[in-house]
Amino acid sequence: MSGDVLSQNEIDALLSALSTGEMNADDLKKEEFEKRIKVYDFKRALRFSKDQIRSLTRIHENFARLLTTFFSAQLRTYVQISVASADQIPYEEFIRSIPKMTILNVFDVPPLEGRILMEVNPNIAYAMMDRMMGGKGTSINKVDNLTEIETKIMSAIFEKACDYLQEAWETIVEIDPVLSEFEVNPQFLRMVSPNETVVVISLNTAIAETTGMINICIPHVVLEPIIPKLSMQYWMQTEKKVREPDEVKQIEKKIQQAEIPIAVELGTANISIQDFLMLDIGDVIELNQLIDGPLLVKVGEVPKFVGQPGKMNKKLAVQVLDTWKEGDEEDE
């Protein structure tokens, strides 16, 4: 029988308690029997291990960072999104936990079967729409009577999130998410059976001064084909790709054919704004470069060589004299 190993002092104290009557042997047996019994609720079937839930949490932490950047740029205001929790519960329990009228975005995720649901709290959704329309991000809760224009704007906002869902999941599986349904009443949504186990990832969301939750509901049927990839062993694997010699030669050939800009700097000068405004055709600007001094040759914007000017085939040219080193300009 497995268990903790008792020290000699603990054994002596236990024997002493039994001999004095402070503890009964029957009580010990009963306590040991109770420890072997675990309460299991079949309505809340735990179909995912803690390791797999942690993997899903990591995926959606990345998704939250991507959404933070995307919405900050789109809404031009402070946006912060982070993972609050990840739980596995029956689908019916999830539906009961969200508002009766809310924003529901349903995504198809081929090649995986089933659909993923993104539930956005109305406070958050209206704050986003208000910012998109040029407002301050004020939130109003009137989701029960969305107009066609409001529906179009909101669905367009969350449709763009498909790309970031794909990017967040690409470490596990290549999916092609598509917004297939936009709904406001959870009772009209039939994704899976009520007792189906779903993973719900809750995201704390703040837009300016408005806060709320975004819940991502993933049914078991979606995750079933990729469950082995959610284990810690899969994440720790490092597949080292060995390039074939022909592939290396092809890469080297492509690099050798790449074009790069090269510029020769004749010199620089500092003048005042007033002198610059007074410049006219024929004026001469004195440079900091001597006529017989070496010139700086740049590859792109990076100094690489020093050279001297000249002509080749009746064209201006520069002859490379040496490689450029830090401090060459100061020595001149």
TrEMBL record:
This is Flagellar motor switch protein FliM. One of its GO terms (biological process) is bacterial-type flagellum-dependent swarming motility. One of its GO terms (molecular function) is cytoskeletal motor activity. It holds the Pfam family FliM. Belongs to the FliM family. NCBIfam families: fliM_switch (TIGR01397). The gene is fliM. It is a peripheral membrane protein. It comes from Niallia endozanthoxylica. One of its GO terms (cellular component) is plasma membrane. InterPro entries: CheC-like_sf (IPR028976), Flag_FliM (IPR001689), FliN-like_C (IPR001543), SpoA-like_sf (IPR036429).
